[in-house]
């Protein structure tokens, strides 16, 4: 599994989602599976959380599902793409279900992200007044489905309607990968062959896997992934305004530097926080890793 995400659907009942298709880079997509647990150690599954309905616009690169509970229902934000160029570029669509384990069905009318540029890895953030924002990445050239002409991956925020079905206004650029001193051009460790869909000739910097977390004191920080000196890595950005608009400053060193990433912070009903991510970053060896973390007003640190 890549891109793991954990939801506590009810006290002591956990659901794990992630990118679960074996042909994750460009093969035909099956959907998303999930797993359930009552202790975060033993997991039952897989359970079919989402299977695309007949006529669904996407058929490949089903990536990075995140699920939130809202108004008695469960909403999934996930990345989808199509092998048919006429279907448009990769985007983030919203799905809905009555149960945390699904079955999920389309909620938004196709992607909520812009229909003219490829986007990936959406995460929901709520302002203090409850306004919903989708924070997501635009991939650099050389990444599967990346955008020609972009050599420096970008992070955006897009306001959503209250019902999470449509965008409101235009997306705002939050920062680029090069803003972080630790972000380096994409590379793979010796002996690890990159997926054939990658074209590394452009030496792209990239952004992916955003996740926003607010500290007890009100500080807003963002976990996000790129590549560093030791492979795939996760860094931390902080909003000076305490809002999604930023401006965002970057921690000098990555939170996790060693060939693992696309993480989220899961805080359970007892108040225990864990960094959840996939490690290593070598297909098909990726596994879900949970590491205790401490969240302060100024930083996120591994305990």
TrEMBL record:
<keyword id="KW-0326">Glycosidase</keyword>
<dbReference type="InterPro" id="IPR051795">
    <property type="entry name" value="Glycosyl_Hydrlase_43"/>
</dbReference>
<dbReference type="GO" id="GO:0005975">
    <property type="term" value="P:carbohydrate metabolic process"/>
</dbReference>
<comment type="similarity">
    <text>Belongs to the glycosyl hydrolase 43 family.</text>
</comment>
<dbReference type="InterPro" id="IPR006710">
    <property type="entry name" value="Glyco_hydro_43"/>
</dbReference>
<dbReference type="GO" id="GO:0004553">
    <property type="term" value="F:hydrolase activity, hydrolyzing O-glycosyl compounds"/>
</dbReference>
<dbReference type="InterPro" id="IPR023296">
    <property type="entry name" value="Glyco_hydro_beta-prop_sf"/>
</dbReference>
<protein>
    <submittedName>
        <fullName>Glycosyl hydrolase family 43</fullName>
    </submittedName>
</protein>
<keyword id="KW-0378">Hydrolase</keyword>
<dbReference type="Pfam" id="PF04616">
    <property type="entry name" value="Glyco_hydro_43"/>
</dbReference>
């Amino acid at each position: 599994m890549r891109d793991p995400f954990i939801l506590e659907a009810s006290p002591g009942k956990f659901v794990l989602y992630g990118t679960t298709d074996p042909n994750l880079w460009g093969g035909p997509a099956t959907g998303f599976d999930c797993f359930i647990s009552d202790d975060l150690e033993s997991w039952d599954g897989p359970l079919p959380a989402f299977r695309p309905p007949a006529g669904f616009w996407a058929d490949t690169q089903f990536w990075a599902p995140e699920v939130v509970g809202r108004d008695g229902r469960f909403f999934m934000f996930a990345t989808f793409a199509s092998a048919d160029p006429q279907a448009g570029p990769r985007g983030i669509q919203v799905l809905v279900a009555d149960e945390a384990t699904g079955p999920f069905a389309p909620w938004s009318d196709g992607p909520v992200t812009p229909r003219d540029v490829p986007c990936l890895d959406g995460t929901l953030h709520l302002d203090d007044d409850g306004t919903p924002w989708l924070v997501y990445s635009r991939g650099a050239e050389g990444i599967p489905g990346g955008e020609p002409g972009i050599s420096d991956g970008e992070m955006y925020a897009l306001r959503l309607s209250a019902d999470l079905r449509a965008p409101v206004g235009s997306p705002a650029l939050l920062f680029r990968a090069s803003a972080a001193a630790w972000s380096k051009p994409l590379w793979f460790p010796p002996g690890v062959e990159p997926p054939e869909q990658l074209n590394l000739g452009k030496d792209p910097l990239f952004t992916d896997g955003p996740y926003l977390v607010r500290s007890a004191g009100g500080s807003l920080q963002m976990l996000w992934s790129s590549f560093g000196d030791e492979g795939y890595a996760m860094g931390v950005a902080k909003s000076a305004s305490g809002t999604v608009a930023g401006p965002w400053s970057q921690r000098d060193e990555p939170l996790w530097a060693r060939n693992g990433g696309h993480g989220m912070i899961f805080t359970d009903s007892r108040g225990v926080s864990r960094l959840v991510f996939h490690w290593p970053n070598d297909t098909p060896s990726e596994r879900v890793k949970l590491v205790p973390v401490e969240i302060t007003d100024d930083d996120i640190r591994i305990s």
